Amino acid sequence: MITTSAPASPPSRPSRPTASMTVAALAAGIVASLLPVVFGAAFLVSVVIHRPLVAMLARRWPSLSGGPLDQESPRIRSALSRITTVWGVVLLAIGILQGVGAIVAGLSITNPASVAVRTLFALAVLIVMSIGTAAYLRRRPADAQTVNEAGDDGTIGVPVSAS
């Protein structure tokens, strides 16, 4: 009986990334970071043009802030601008981290595990930001009894002496 065996396969060499693989990784990085960066930029632009997006959201959903806010108050406007700026910066950071993760760590858009890692990271950050924003907006200024009666120096929280 004659037996034949298949020729032995040549030893495998470590594969080096091809140009197309590098371009695909770069494209994945851009796609992974695109949406958070676009939204982050929108938040920051809204602050620059003095129409913070968080103010619009607080008007649309007053229950998020524990009731309607006096958005004509300089203190409230300043707080809404600060919150909008923080959201913009955090969204930009999420986008940058997702892009870097896709390029450096190989977190591709086609691998379900990579998508899960990026998505869970972004969701965790957004949940913490949402809870923090709602808590910050629900903070109420000092009541009228503790506001300086004259009000000319703009201080809040200075007890009014009982005369």
Give a verbal description of the structure.
The protein is an all-alpha fold. The protein has one domain (about 25-140). It is about 60% helix and about 0% strand. It contains 4 helices and no strands. The chain has helices spanning about 20-50, 55-60, 75-105, 110-140. Helix 1 (about 20-50) packs antiparallel against helix 3 (about 75-105) and helix 3 (about 75-105) packs antiparallel against helix 4 (about 110-140). The longest helix is centred in the middle third of the chain and has 31 residues, at about 75-105. Residues about 140-163 have low confidence and may be disordered.
What is the topology?
Blueprint: H1 19-48, H2 53-60, H3 74-104, H4 112-138
Helix pairs in contact: 1-3, 3-4
